[in-house]
Design brief:
Blueprint (H helix, E strand, L loop, with lengths): L2 H28 L6 H21 L7 H5 L12
Amino acid sequence: MNNTDDYRFRSHELLLELDAATTSLMMLVSARRLEGSPWADAINRQKLAYEAWVTLLNAPKIDPVPVLDGRAAGSYEPSED
């Protein structure tokens, strides 16, 4: 699997969790349950899901493997040295 596929897969995982966490919050609002431990847990879950998503978005887009295996960055061919 290449870096783009890995990024897309991880993005999908994180967005599913963020969506589920936000849905849980919306359900509590609909049920008028805006306090107590279920509310605090739902807020914390949504906060953590959002932070994980933002961390992925802001992660450096560097492929360290070409330096290690002699490939030109962004290619599968050996570098021209």
